[in-house]
Amino acid sequence: MSWVYLFFAGLLEIAWAIGLKASDGFSRPLISAATIAAILASLGLLGLAMRTLPMGTAYAVWSGIGIIGTTLIGVWFFGEPASIARLGCIALIAVGIVGLKLLHP
């Protein structure tokens, strides 16, 4: 169950990172409130995952999911650069996440 918590915590990390951009410096109240709720939910789920997963593994996977998702959404929806080198580095993060999952089933 910890990996499920961690997966959803990572998805919420993506949501709040996008929310930070969309809130325009917390000047949009509804988006700001949703962003804060996503932050709290993400951290709560991360905490639940850390009950049984090693802290370093859980944190690395959580941040990796956020990095990968936020980068891809940035490229697809916000026109951020998608160089081969940048996407290659993101792919290395994905490989690391898979490796951590295989080491800690």
Automatic annotation (TrEMBL):
The chain crosses the membrane at residues 27-47, 59-78, 84-103. It is a multi-pass membrane protein. The keyword Membrane applies. Gene3D superfamilies: 1.10.3730.20. The keyword Transmembrane applies. Keywords: Cell membrane, Membrane, Transmembrane, Transmembrane helix, Transport. It comes from the Bacteria. It is found in: Cell membrane. Its main location: membrane. PANTHER family: GUANIDINIUM EXPORTER, SMR FAMILY PROTON-DEPENDENT DRUG EFFLUX TRANSPORTER SUGE. Belongs to the drug/metabolite transporter (DMT) superfamily. Small multidrug resistance (SMR) (TC 2.A.7.1) family. Gdx/SugE subfamily. This is Guanidinium exporter. It comes from Magnetospirillum sulfuroxidans. The lineage of its organism: Bacteria, Pseudomonadati, Pseudomonadota, Alphaproteobacteria, Rhodospirillales.
